């Protein structure tokens, strides 16, 4: 049996008769999926604050405080809070999807499961899933890396514009690091489904710093607004 045939045999052995994996790629942990996702979200927020505050305190000049005063004077802190809420909404929706990904045992890179409808009384055909082997499999995973990048760009792009207004240089550096990590993710993801993890996690750390800067903008602007409104 050649190498390609062996890989195909292994692929078949790890799936049921309709093509669904026998085991979820999620680790067997006692904690529910939502708790794992909430924990990672909180860790990202903490990491972002840990790096964002030194940037604000030690790498900023007078222009930063002038911009924050402008934001607070115009009541724009709420705009920054709104951007953060949109991001948290996406995180909540991803958590719901992750729960059912685990329950259904639909592993990455598959994003949907398609059913082939057959005549009444006919046995069901296997579900339509992503090809995972060979060049077609590598293409599917590389393409999935592109789509994943595009899924994150709207929220991150909003963060870049808002936080970048106050902290243009740090945000530019973090954005460049984010892109490099995403390219790394695409290259490694193309080779294997688990290869996505390193580049993805590093990119999220870069994004967390931008988020931390955005939250500083929101907090400072609201503080200035409330102080001005106080009797």
TrEMBL record:
GO terms, biological process: leukotriene metabolic process
Alphabetical list of InterPro entries matching this protein: MAPEG, MAPEG-like_dom_sf, Membr-assoc_MAPEG
Subcellular location(s) per record: Membrane
Membrane-crossing segments per the record: 33-56, 76-97, 149-167
Gene Ontology CC terms: endoplasmic reticulum; membrane; nuclear envelope
Keywords noted in UniProt: Membrane, Transmembrane, Transmembrane helix
GO molecular function: glutathione peroxidase activity; glutathione transferase activity
Cross-referenced Pfam families: MAPEG
Protein's UniProt keywords contain GTP-binding: no
Topology of the protein relative to the lipid bilayer: Multi-pass membrane protein
UniProt name for this protein: Glutathione transferase
